[in-house]
Structures are given as structure tokens and as C-alpha cells.
Amino acid sequence: MDDLVFEPPRNGPTLWEIGIPDRSAREFYIPDPDPKYINKLFVNHPDKFRQYGLWERYTDLYPNGDIVFTIGESDYKKDWFFAQVTRKKDEKTYTGTTWQIKFKLDSVNRNETYSLRLALASVAQAELQVRINDSSMNTPLFSSGLIGKDNAIARHGIHGLYWLFNVNLQGDMLVEGENTIYLTQANATSPFQGIMYDYIRLEAPPSHD
Q1: Which of 14-23, 83-92, 181-190, 198-207 has the lowest mean pLDDT?
Q2: Per the database record, which ranges form the Rhamnogalacturonan lyase domain (predicted)?
Q3: Which of 18, 50, 78, 173 is 20 to 30 A (C-alpha) from 28?
Q4: What does the alpha-carbon distance between residue 77 and residue 159 come to, in Å, rounded to a whole number?
Q5: Shortest CA distance to 189 belongs to which of 121, 63, 65, 88?
């Protein structure tokens, strides 16, 4: 049998991207574990994600708000937590989290369609919602619905079943200057619900040359 070559979907040139399209969240920021949970087998080990309890570190590291990632300034190796998990409010209560991607556009073609590619390395009982330039929209531009039965977060993994979503952004949703994409993980009843991103890309409209 000849080689089978998969060509990822693409509509237009890349405006920006976050991560590496390798079906893993390994390249993102993986924190040090709580000292009381350290597994000495994985100290100074390339598989740092094998340490226990890393999901709890999100609330510790971002106590006052969720991640704001600015294209051209932020570094996904340092500024993009490896999993979009729930936020712990007290011993038995959790809340969803909303991450922001801020980016600037010098010009916008309001009559064309931009493409947002969201590749997920793992999902556990999560709902991904996407909003653009208005975090208070009652109805998100996109919702995945409740998806995913991976246990990568709880089982100290870094990937699971792969998901790929393509979200169309009409040009009149964008503005010249600063724009913000809001990524919300809305399901929040346990610390193990969440999303591991693989890769995110925004594409300009296709060329008609």
C-alpha cells in the first residue's frame, strides 16, 4: 500500500498560530507540582506532566483571573497553561474558565470569511465555547456541546482522542486594531473536566487571484 498523506484543512494564509500541530499539549506550560505531591521519578524528567495534581496548580498560578494571551508578545511555552481546566472556588465547587487571545489586524476584509482552526489534544467532559470581541454574548459564535471522555488530565497524560473544529469568522465580526477571541470551557462540576489544546490557527480569507 502506498503512503497515505493527510492534508490538514486550510482556506487561507496564516495570520497567527499557537502551539505545534502534533496532537499533543506537551509544548505548553507545564507547572511544577505542589511540593507535597512530588514524584521523585519525574523530577528533571522530560515527561514533567506525569507529576500528580497539576490541574490544581491553575488556580494557584492564576488566582485573579484567567489566561490572556497576546499574539506577538506572549510565549505559548510560558504563558499557555497545558490544560484549560476548571477553577476551584472551594472544596466542592468549581467554575468554568475563559481564556482570551488578543491580536491586532492592520486591515479587515469585511465581506470575506476568516477561519479559526481549533485542534484539541484531549477533552474530558467539557464544552468549548467561542466568542469574538464580546465576552458577554448570550449565544456563543460556536459551541462544541458536551464532548470528550478522555482522562488525560486526571491520569497525568498529555494527549487523548484528537478533535478538530473549524470556526468561520465573518469579516464584519472583526475590527482593524485589537481583537479578542474568548475560549470558554463552560462545564464545571469537577477538577478533571477540561481541554488540552494541540494547536490554534487563524487564517485570512482565501485569495481570489
Answers
A1: 83-92
A2: 14-202
A3: 173
A4: 17
A5: 88
Three cell numbers written together for 138: 448570550
Distance CA 51, CA 194 (A): 17
- Which grid cell is 182? 474568548
Decide which of 54 and 101 is more confident. 101
> In 18-31, which positions are buried (b, 16+ CB within 10 angstroms) versus exposed (e)?
bbeeebbbbbbebb
- Cell numbers at 14, concatenated: 496564516
Looking at this protein, which amino acid is placed at residue 121? A
- d(C-alpha 58, C-alpha 82), whole Å: 10
Q: How far apart are CA 75 and CA 67, in angstroms?
A: 12
Domains of the chain: 14-203 (2.60.120.260)
pLDDT band of residue 122 (cuts 50, 70, 90) is very high
